[in-house]
């Protein structure tokens, strides 16, 4: 007894602690444990502190602990408080990893489940935050303390050398104006496309090259740029691929499915479709209406909650489509093979049976799990040609007949009708652009679209009837703020808009229908589009304003959208469509899991974000392809339309092609242009010349940068030569302003003063 150490108030022995006791204290402490905290916990004073310091140093050298003297942690573990970054949303909860992790560490960086915090707003993928960490069982938990600003963006770029031979990172993101100095080039060479990361916290810090991608202008590079820039997951983990292989061999249990193999169901898709989610069939019901089937790939049978496939699909949220490739939500064995509805092959389907009244309304619906064997896969153009030339068979004729009734009901609803052309990039086998054109809009497209809308409405209403969870596709009525801005804009154009009236899509349609002049119509259409809210997914219904529908869900594309998969699972539960338990290491149930139900808000928020991410990535890539296509046509004059106006100039897009380009105000001639924000136009103070959104005009292409997707235009004069630049003309005349009215500021597009935007166009040196 006499040899035992005295204990302090914490119950710990006093005196120099053993290595095991130090590690135990560090791990059990609820706050950062540094040298001071350890000394206090074990009652160490005076000369004993020197011995403690040496012991901590020895433990660090032995690889037992890591960190600084103010906060130690077990080697291979995490500091009690550290900076984390959200890498994915899993089961509605953010999952994070340490922002800084030693690449030479023997173990991989831990993944932490982030708990909700009243102090920190909901976190999304890519967010950085300060957190208190906690090791619980075999895993780690993060308790957010503070959200941190995003790291410097635009860290993908091309290595370029300035006049003195120093390397710079020229950004491929057109929103990033300035190049960054490279402090660590690694093995990258001049002209190569690379990924880099900041070497410090300052916006002016040097960057370090972490990955070499290769030739930035090589075929198929543009989609790689978008994938890396937007952080789109594009490599499936081995365990997900293994599960995909296993579920692909699941038997279809013919006795548990409705047999629709004798029904001549057809899929009508783009000629270049990479997967086939949906197929349709219809025939007259003898009462002036039609009975129809919309057959959708039964993805829920293969991708089950709680599995590795499900986790990866939820992380991706949706497939992302580029001109040269698709980043699928599901592995190819499922997305392009087993789940894809192809002709003459037995496939698992979720069948939506509907009745279409003579007025075109869907009056009845039911859902089954079925086996289908498609009669044909038909391209839109081929289906349209068959209808037009009279060679269509009975199946196509019935589909068009049913569609005419659906179209009648659509016109009665009067959904929002905006002419938004879709650009299509066609590549040859080497990935080189053959053509960029606006995709033609055919009746065949409308046929499929209206059948899909009918099935989506039926799915939403069926789940509502069963009091089951619904993942709604929501498009809310324009907000009062947006309508006020719309009203003010119309007033600047000499038009009226009454705020007291009931706002419907038809109100906007009638407004556009009454406008004859194409330029004016484009102008108002842009304003209508700006007044709309962004569609999203959610479990609380708020209707779909654009489609003029009270209840709407996405049911028809489960191969490429996770929202649709959730709707399928809800239907499996609501209609009791569960199949026999599969053999092997595959989750039993194919309906909604408990986590699906309880975390539906978080899941729908996450997949709404991945949808926006995909849209931005696809748009960025098309812009780069357009710029590459036009790079050989610099100097040509194009018919364009103004799409945006700012104080520093206006943006215009080439008609029937796309690709937004800037016309700097400094190139608009001798006049001094004032920016009218309300009217969204530039006004010449001497000539009265205006440039407004929607105006059509001829512009010469001055620059085309395929790396950023940025274009630059200039005004040609009557001889086809550029007009005078700003530096070649006298300053504007002084204007007198009324009391309280300041002179309008004229911005410039040159970027920061004395700092060239990009060394591709003008050499730069480090200052």
Would you write up a description of this structure?
With 767 residues, the chain is of the alpha+beta class. The chain is built from 17 helices and 33 strands. A 5-stranded mixed β-barrel has the order 3-4-5-7-6. A 5-stranded mixed beta barrel has the order 8-9-10-12-11. It has a 5-stranded mixed β-sheet with strand order 13-20-19-16-15. The longest helix is centred in the last third of the chain and has 31 residues, at 600-630. The radius of gyration is 31 Å and the shape is globular. The protein starts with 18 loop residues before the first helix and ends in a 53-residue tail after the last strand.
Compact summary:
This protein has 767 residues and is an alpha+beta fold.
Envelope shape = globular
Strand content of the residues, in percent?
A: 25-35%
| Sheet/helix structural class | alpha+beta
Low-confidence stretches: 1-5, 718-767
Proportion in helices: 25-40%
What is the average per-residue confidence, as pLDDT, rounded to a whole number?
Answer: 83
Strand line-up of the largest beta sheet? 3-4-5-7-6
N- to C-terminal separation?
72 Å
Q: Using only CA atoms, what is the Rg?
A: 31 Å
Number of domains: 6
Number of helices: 17
Q: What is the number of E strands?
A: 33
Most strands sheet: 5 strands, mixed, barrel
């Amino acid at each position: 007894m006499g040899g035992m150490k005295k204990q302090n108030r914490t119950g710990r022995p006093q005196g120099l602690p053993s290595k095991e006791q130090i590690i135990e204290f560090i791990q059990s402490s609820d706050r950062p444990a540094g040298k001071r905290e350890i000394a206090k916990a074990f009652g160490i004073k005076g000369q004993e502190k020197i011995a403690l310091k040496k012991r901590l140093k020895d433990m660090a050298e032995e690889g037992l602990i890591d960190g600084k003297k103010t906060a130690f942690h077990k080697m291979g573990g995490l500091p009690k408080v550290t900076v984390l970054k959200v890498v994915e949303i899993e089961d509605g909860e953010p999952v994070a990893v340490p922002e800084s992790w030693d690449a030479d560490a023997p173990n991989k960086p831990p993944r932490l489940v982030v708990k909700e915090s009243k102090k920190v707003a909901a976190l999304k993928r890519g967010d950085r935050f300060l957190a208190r960490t906690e090791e619980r069982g075999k895993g780690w938990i993060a308790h957010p303390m503070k959200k941190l600003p995003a790291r410097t963006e635009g860290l993908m770029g091309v290595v370029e050398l300035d006049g003195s031979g120093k390397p710079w990172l020229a950004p491929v993101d057109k929103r990033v104006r300035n190049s960054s100095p490279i402090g660590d080039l690694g093995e990258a060479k001049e002209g190569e496309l690379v990924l880099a990361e900041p070497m410090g916290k300052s916006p002016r810090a040097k960057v370090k090259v972490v990955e070499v991608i290769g030739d930035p202008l090589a075929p198929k590079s543009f989609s790689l740029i978008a994938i890396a820039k937007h952080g789109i997951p594009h490599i499936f983990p081995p365990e997900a691929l293994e599960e995909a292989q296993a579920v692909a061999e699941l038997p279809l249990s013919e006795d548990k499915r409705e047999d629709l193999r004798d029904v001549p169901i057809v899929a009508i898709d783009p000629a270049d479709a990479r997967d086939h989610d949906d197929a349709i069939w219809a025939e007259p019901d003898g009462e002036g209406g039609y009975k129809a089937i919309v057959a959708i790939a039964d993805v829920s049978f293969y991708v089950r909650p709680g599995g590795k496939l499900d986790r990866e699909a939820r992380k991706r949220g949706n497939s992302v489509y580029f001109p040269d490739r698709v980043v699928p939500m599901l592995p190819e064995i499922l997305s392009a093979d087993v789940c894809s509805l192809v002709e003459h092959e037995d496939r698992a389907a979720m069948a939506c049976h509907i009745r279409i009244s003579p007025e075109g309304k869907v009056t009845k619906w039911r859902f089954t799990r079925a086996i289908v064997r498609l009669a044909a896969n038909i391209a839109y153009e081929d289906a349209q040609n068959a209808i037009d030339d009279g060679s269509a068979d009975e199946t196509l004729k019935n589909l068009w007949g049913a569609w005419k009734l659906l179209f009648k009901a659509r016109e009665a609803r009067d959904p929002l009708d905006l002419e938004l052309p879709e650009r299509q990039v066609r590549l040859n086998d080497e990935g080189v652009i053959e053509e960029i054109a606006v995709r033609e809009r055919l009746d065949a497209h409308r046929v499929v679209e209206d059948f899909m809308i009918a099935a989506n409405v039926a799915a939403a209403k069926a789940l509502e009837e069963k009091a089951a969870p619904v993942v709604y596709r929501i498009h809310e009525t324009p907000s009062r703020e947006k309508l006020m801005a719309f009203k003010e804009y119309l007033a600047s154009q000499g038009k009226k808009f009454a705020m007291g009236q009931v706002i419907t899509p038809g109100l906007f349609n009638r407004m556009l229908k009454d406008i004859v002049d194409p330029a004016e119509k484009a102008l108002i259409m842009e304003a209508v589009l700006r007044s709309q809210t962004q569609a999203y997914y959610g479990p609380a219904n708020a209707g779909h304003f654009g489609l003029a529908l009270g209840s709407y869900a996405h049911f028809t594309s489960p191969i490429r959208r996770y929202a649709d998969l959730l709707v399928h699972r809800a239907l499996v539960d609501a209609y009791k469509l569960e199949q026999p338990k599969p053999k092997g290491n595959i989750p039993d149930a194919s309906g909604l899991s408990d986590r699906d139900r309880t975390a539906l808000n978080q899941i729908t928020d996450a997949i709404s974000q991945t949808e926006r991410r995909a849209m931005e990535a696809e748009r960025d890539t098309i812009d780069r392809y357009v710029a590459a296509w036009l790079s050989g046509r610099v100097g040509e004059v194009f018919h364009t339309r103004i799409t945006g106006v700012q104080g520093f100039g206006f943006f215009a897009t080439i008609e029937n092609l796309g690709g937004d380009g800037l016309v700097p105000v400094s190139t608009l001639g001798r006049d001094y242009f004032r920016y009218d924000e309300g009217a969204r136009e530039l006004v010449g103070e001497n000539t009265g010349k205006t440039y407004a959104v929607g105006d059509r005009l001829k512009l010469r292409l001055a620059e085309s940068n395929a790396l950023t997707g940025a274009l630059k235009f200039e005004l040609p004069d009557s001889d086809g030569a550029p007009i005078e630049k700003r530096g070649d003309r006298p300053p504007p005349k002084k204007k007198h302003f009324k009391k309280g009215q300041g002179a309008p500021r004229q911005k410039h597009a040159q970027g920061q003063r004395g700092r060239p935007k990009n060394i591709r166009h003008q050499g730069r040196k480090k200052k």
